[in-house]
Design goal:
The complex is a heterodimer of chains A (about 260) and B (about 350).
Chain A: E1 4-15, E2 18-29, E3 33-37, H1 44-51, E4 59-64, E5 67-68, H2 74-80, E6 82-84, H3 97-104, H4 113-118, H5 121-141, H6 156-168, E7 174-178, H7 186-201, E8 205-209, H8 213-219, E9 222-227, E10 230-235, H9 237-242, H10 244-251
Helix pairs in contact in A: 3-5, 3-6, 5-6
Chain B: H1 2-32, H2 34-59, H3 68-81, E1 82-83, E2 88-89, H4 92-111, H5 119-139, E3 160-161, E4 164-165, E5 170-172, E6 175-177, H6 179-202, H7 205-215, H8 217-222, H9 227-253, H10 263-277, H11 281-310, H12 317-335, H13 344-361
Antiparallel strand pairs in B: 1-2, 3-4, 5-6
The chains are: A alpha/beta (about 260), B mainly alpha (about 350).
The complex binds adenosine-5'-triphosphate (ATP) and magnesium ion.
């Protein structure tokens, strides 16, 4: 593979007696959309949590864009350039949509407590820039009409988009999406597909967990399949689709 | 021209408030007596305390039950450095900032071990911390006498600069300004300052990070917020305000002892924040004023009321006061669970939750 943005090797993660991830290796090429699929409980979200610093892996190596991120704290991971969304949406529910995205700018701004109380010109300029950028991102995902609404009052589709906007606010190199299409109707799913393509074309690599096989097969450049914490297949969509192990573990016959 | 008239309206409101605040001690003093001005002074101190705790509990969502410890640290710093205890008489512009810094350091000291704790567990540990500080103050009179133990520190210097002192009635022309009036103005200026600082913090990058932490710490971490630092900052800044209030308290009273810094005080300040409206500065200010003044009104009325209606004391006034106070708290939480003056958002959230519960029942 030409240029790997993210590379993990031999990642193990145990929960007590449960081996949630065993010796998982991945290499995500820069500028691609990389799919991660597998049956329920396969360990996909666990892998996300390991990649974003929420879980500490037991063994393995993890390099991202030339940096060693093995067992790095979440905020370090974000600083290195990985942002994510959550399977069970985790917005700041009591904040407006705009404020949610503004929180995403935290890492790209610097004003501390002193700046906050002094409100010096630099802090004010920075605050205005945060607001502008957040607004721009709401525009980018197409939800400016609900900018002033509390996050918890948004429709499901809007919440998913808001989570993506918030993640993009950190200016990631890799955007990790955990089942972004879950619960969406076909039209919303199609809009989401276009949004993901737009993000990728904007130069952000995407790691996508998704159960919608049609969406994954159509959109992803490469796909990895997890089953019981093991990577059972990896490759371009067509190869993965035909892999007998994948058909047995996940796709079944019903999908074809 | 609408903007012009609205700024003019604001200006008028501001001047009106300022004049009202300026004459308040004279009005209260002549109508109700100077003991009530003293109560108002304490209300102002409690505003500073409640706003400090509000940073930790209201903004960052960290339930701190030992907040009084920072008040104690500020008070003892002032007392030990400006009293005959060690024969030191450092000026207030050294002791009060020093007390604030000490309190902030204690904030970090408390914050560090409890970084991983949340909710009830955090409440229990902070409660213990508050007690530890009080017990330390109580026992640091041997082997070397530092705090003078349960007897407390006496003859603490009032705030003074050169010949100007807040410890004696001041004569300006024909105007007599008693000690409680002088402290009123000092405390008023400082509480206004704390209000401004707290509100600026709230509407900043830091304030947003606190709310994010309160709403969902995992999502906050995943947005690149350094959870450890932002928590410690909340503890330290909250403690800072408590430390200032403590120094002012020591200078105002002239005497402090560990008794003033018990668990009940921590709970009172927490009640001011929660009853007023967590996270909402005007609500917290209101909570502090009401919870300082209401018990005093009860104290003044329960005794005479019983004498007039029954001709004798049936319930000990002090007990009745506590009873009524507790009852009022329970009723408040039932009627207005979001507090007396919640932020619009929080009020909405609570009414939504109620509607949901009703829908589920029906
Ligand atoms: N914090 C945890 N503690 C204990 N077990 C966990 C924890 N997190 C995940 N697991 C377990 O690890 C396994 C993998 O879970 P994970 O959530 O990663 O699956 P998934 O592939 O995302 O499934 P789904 O498609 O349903 O989202 C499951 O058996 C789950 O119960
Ligand atoms: Mg999952």
């Amino acid at each position: 593979m030409a240029d790997a943005l993210l590379k993990i090797e031999g990642i193990n993660k145990r929960f007590g007696g449960l081996q949630a991830l065993s010796a998982v290796s991945l290499e995500i090429p820069r500028g691609s959309i990389y799919g991660l699929i597998g049956p329920n409980g396969a360990g996909k979200t666990t892998l996300f949590n390991v990649l974003t610093g929420l879980y500490m892996p037991d063994e393995g190596t993890f390099t991202f864009d030339g940096q060693d991120l093995f067992r790095a704290k979440p905020h370090k991971v974000v600083a290195a350039g990985i942002a994510r969304t959550f399977q069970n949406i985790r917005l700041f529910s009591e904040m407006t949509a705009l404020e949610n995205v503004m929180v995403g700018r935290h890492i790209k701004s610097r004003a501390g407590a002193l700046g906050a109380v002094l409100r010096d010109p630099r802090t004010r300029a920075e605050e205005a820039a945060i607001r502008d950028k957040a607004w721009e991102l709401l525009e980018y995902v197409g939800i400016t009409d609900v900018a002033g609404e509390l996050a918890r009052n948004l429709s499901y589709g809007h919440q998913r988009r808001l989570e993506i906007a918030r993640a993009l606010a950190t200016e990631p190199k890799l955007l990790a999406l955990d089942e972004p299409a879950a619960g969406m109707n076909p039209r919303e799913t199609d809009d989401l597909r276009q949004l993901m393509a737009k993000v990728r074309d904007g130069g952000v690599t995407i790691l996508l967990i998704e159960h919608d096989v049609k969406l994954v097969m159509g959109l992803c450049d490469r796909i990895a399949v997890l089953d019981y914490g093991k990577r059972i297949a990896e490759g371009v969509p067509d190869a993965v689709r035909k892999d007998p192990k994948v058909i047995e573990a996940y796709l079944g016959v019903a999908h074809e | 021209m609408t903007t012009n008239t609205s700024t003019r309206g604001k200006m008028a409101l501001f001047i009106g408030c300022a004049v009202l605040m300026a004459v308040a001690p004279f009005v209260i003093g002549s109508v109700l007596g100077n003991s009530w001005v003293r109560i108002v002074d304490f209300a102002l101190l409690y505003i500073m305390l409640a706003l400090g705790l509000n940073i930790v509990v209201g903004f960052a969502g960290l339930l701190d039950m030992g907040y009084i410890a920072f008040y104690a640290v500020g008070a003892y710093t002032y007392a030990l450095l400006s009293s005959p205890q060690f024969g030191l008489h450092l000026p207030f512009y050294v002791t009060i900032p020093l007390g604030a810094i000490c309190a902030a350091c204690f904030g970090l000291l408390l914050g560090t071990p409890v970084l991983r704790l949340k909710g009830d567990y955090l409440a229990i540990v902070t409660l213990g911390f508050g007690e530890i500080i009080r017990i330390f103050m109580n026992n640091l009179n041997q082997p070397i006498n530092i705090t003078n133990g349960p007897q407390g520190v006496n003859l603490i210097d009032p705030i003074h600069l050169g010949d100007v002192t807040l410890g004696k009635t001041m004569q300006i022309g024909s105007l007599n300004l008693p000690v409680v009036y002088l402290h009123y103005y000092l405390f008023l200026i400082l509480s206004v300052l704390v209000v401004i600082l707290a509100s600026r913090l709230q509407h900043s990058r830091i304030g947003r990070a606190w709310v994010a932490l309160r709403e969902d710490d995992i999502a906050a971490a995943s947005m690149g917020i350094n959870i450890r630092n932002i928590k410690l900052l909340a503890f330290a800044l909250g403690a800072l305000s408590g430390g200032v209030a403590g120094g002012l308290f020591a200078s105002f009273q002239g005497f402090i002892s560990p008794e003033s810094f018990g668990l009940m005080e921590s709970i009172m300040i927490l009640a001011m924040v929660v009853l007023g409206g967590m996270g909402h500065i005007p609500g917290v200010v209101l909570g502090a004023v009401v919870l300082t003044v209401a018990p005093e009104i009860l104290r003044d009325t329960i005794g005479p009321l019983q004498m007039n209606t029954f001709g004798r004391m049936i319930v000990d006034p002090e007990n009745a006061r506590q009873l009524l106070f507790g009852l009022a708290l329970v009723v408040m939480m039932l009627v207005r669970p979001a507090g007396m003056w919640p932020s619009k958002r929080r009020a909405l959230e609570f009414s939504d939750a109620k509607a949901k519960a009703r829908a589920q029942k029906g």
